Structures are given as structure tokens and as C-alpha cells.
Amino acid sequence: MLAEKGRAKTWEPNSPSNVTRAKGFQSVSFPHSDMEEQKENIQDQDENKSPGDSGARDTPHLKPACPPGSSIVDSEPAVPPSHREFSDPVYKEIALANGHINRMNRDELRAKLSELKLDTRGVKDVLKKRLKSYYKKQKLTLSAAEAAKTGMFYDLICVVDFEATCEENNPQDFEHEIIEFPIVLIDTHTLEIVDSFQEYVKPEINPKLSDFCVQLTGITQKMVDEADTFPAVLRRVVSWLQEKELGTKYRYTLLTDGSWDMSKFLNIQCRISGIRYPPFARKWINIRKSYGNFYKVPRTNTKLSSMLEKLGLKYEGRPHCGLDDARNISRIALRMLQDGCQLRDNEHLHEGQLQSVPSSDPPEGAPPPHNPKGRH
Question: Which residue intervals are annotated with compositional bias (Pro residues) in the record (predicted)?
């Protein structure tokens, strides 16, 4: 069974991307529908009940099934810099450069970025941020203190985007069960996607998928019928992470598109499966918060399609295929790293409740992954 599911090859930093995939895929085409908008509305209603949760994922038009394989964004209070930090003349130079950049129009920004051999895609605010980050890096001295400030917090980031059971009009007490567990691994040093993992999961409470769920995700009844239940899939996820030496040799964390995946899907699934919530998934990067805070955009502009569009990128693959969603989220994360963003954990689960991680907390890598114990 394990051999059929195909464990991924051992990861090497410069090796081409590989993917562990679940068996039983069947190519299916789906019609266009407004059901995705309805799902988003349902998730938005849930968010109104839990202010800490992120909004639902955005819902572009459906494409053929993928192959296996408020208001303003909440800003965390920053630690106020010391007076000495800004007494260095380099900060005056940076301020002058920023003022000049602020007066440039979009064509001038693109011309300067092209001259510097930097990416010229994106809206004006993104281009300004990219150019400012470039000049800031150039101006800052390479002292040990500054190197620590500009260095990466993690060696590797695991981008996770679950798909779960759903109905067209979810009852208030509907319990979502994970039916796809994808991970995309990005290297923060080479700024590349280096590996990926994907398996489908057999739901137990509602084993028969709704027509709405099938059309939305592209996951067929045959796929989940032939899959293992969540505890078995999670064990293989842990083995895959251990093979990559995450938490031992390499510092890592998780990243999601909003709070929904960890605070809802994984939290509910662990309770359903009678296992404890895995410690390695207690903290994560909510890329919507990071994106909004870094590019200074309103909350309404932090949905997946909006983030891609403002960065000059297009969605690749099939929306609501978990693996394709994770790959596109990874592209956003990589672009943010290229633009000088320091991605770090900004949310965590404490006693089952979603909480923000204060920006004053020192960044920590996730602990080495282990199989969670059963609930007592």
C-alpha cells in the first residue's frame, strides 16, 4: 500500500521537484458554477463568529481536475527601534532614497527595476516596495547585528493547503473532514520549490462526498474510497518530514493561506480521529497577514487570486486542488522573500484557540515532527 502511494525521493537542496502522490486519480472535467462563491460566504460567516480566523479562500472559475501529486489587515505591534539604531547615517540615506522612489510613476519604477535586473511585474505599490527593499539591502552595513536582522528565520517552509468535505449549504454543526493533505516545500536560501507531498484521505463521519464537494475540489469518490484514513496519512506525513531532517538539521515552519487550515480543518480532524493535535503544527505563518502587513494593503486584497494579481502572477493549475493551491501560495511566499519580506510565524493554537503571535516574540522553528499520541 505504501509503495503504491509512492514515498518521495530523498530531498537534496538543488534537486528537481518531486511529489509523493496518492493513488486512484481519475481525470474529470467540471462545469463553471457559482458554488465557490457560496462556499466563501459560508466561511466568511464562520469568520464573523471567530474574529481571529482568516477569511475563506477565494474562488476563481473551475478548471479540469488537477493530477494527484477588518477592513485593514491586523498589524502586530512592532518593537520600537532604539534611537541609536536610526542615528546611523545609513538610515538618512535610506529615507532619502525612499522619498525619491515615492515620487516615481509606474513607468519610472519599472525602468529602474529593469535597469537593476529586478522583477518588473506587479502593481505600483508592489514595485515601490521591491525597489525600496533593494536599496535598503544595498545601504545597510553587513555587520553581524544587521546580518541577524536581515537573515532568514527558517531554512525551509512547508506550505499546506487542505481540502475538506463540504456541502453547498453547510449546516451550522457540519464537521469538515480532511480529504486532501498536500505540502509544498520551499527553500528560503535558494528561493525555490524543492519538493512536494500529496495524499488523499478517506473521510469517516461523512464517507460519501457531496456533488458540490466533488465539483469544487475535483476529488472523486473513488479517490477517497481508495485512500487511507487520516491517522495513517498523518504518519506518512511525519515520516516524509523526518526524511527531510526538518527540526533536526534544518529549521522550518508551516505556512497557510489564512487561519482556516490549522485552526479549523486540522483541529477538527484530530478530534474526529481521536489523536492529539501535532505539536509541530501549533505555530504557522498566515500569509494573508504577512502579505497585508508587508505591502500595506487592505484585508480585502489578501485573497489568493488578489495576491497573485497584485504581484503580476497568474494562477497555475486547478483552483481548489490542494496541491495546486499550495504551489501558488508558495509562489507568493517566494516573491515576498525576494522583495525583502521576513516571513515568520504570526499565528498559533493555544488550548484549541486561535491566537496571534506577537511580533516581539523571538522567531522559533517548529519542533521535530513526531506521530501524535491518542487522546486520553
Answer: 360-376
d(CA 206, CA 186): 34
Chain CA centroid to CA 302, Å: 12
Q: Which helix (H) or strand (E) holds 135?
A: helix 124-139
Mean pLDDT of the chain: 80
Q: Are strands 283-286 and 252-256 parallel, antiparallel or unpaired?
A: parallel
CA quadruple 298, 300, 303, 309: dihedral sign: negative
Choice among 58-67, 275-284, 365-374 with the minimum mean pLDDT = 58-67
Residue in 36, 47, 163, 180 annotated catalytic: 163
Q: Distance of CA 375 to CAs 106, 141, 249, 278, Å?
A: 56, 52, 30, 12
Burial of 4 (0-12, 13-18, 19+ CB in 10 A): exposed
E strand or H helix that includes residue 86: helix 83-87
What Rg, from alpha-carbon coordinates, does the chain have? 21
Catalytic site residue from 36, 177, 180, 320 = 320
Residues paired with 20 in a beta bridge: 197
> What whole-number distance in Å separates Cα of residue 359 and Cα of residue 299?
19
User: Which residues, in sequence order, are CB contacts of 309 under 8 Å at separation 6+?
Assistant: none
Would you mind telling me the total number of residues written for the chain in this entry? Answer: 376
**How many angstroms separate the CA atoms of 82 and 212, rounded?**
55
- pLDDT for residue 125: 93
Grid cell of 155 as nine digits: 531554512
At residue 262 the predicted structure's pLDDT band, cuts being 50, 70 and 90, is very high
pLDDT digits (tens, 9 = 90+) for 123-175: 999 999 999 998 888 776 543 444 444 447 899 999 999 999 999 988 888 99
The domains found in the chain, sorted by start residue, are 2-69+153-356 (3.30.420.10), 89-140 (1.10.720.30)
Is 163 considered catalytic here?
A: yes
E strands of the chain, at which residues?
19-20, 156-160, 163-164, 178-187, 192-200, 252-256, 283-286, 347-350, 353-356
Q: How far separated are the first and last CA of the chain, in Å rounded?
A: 29
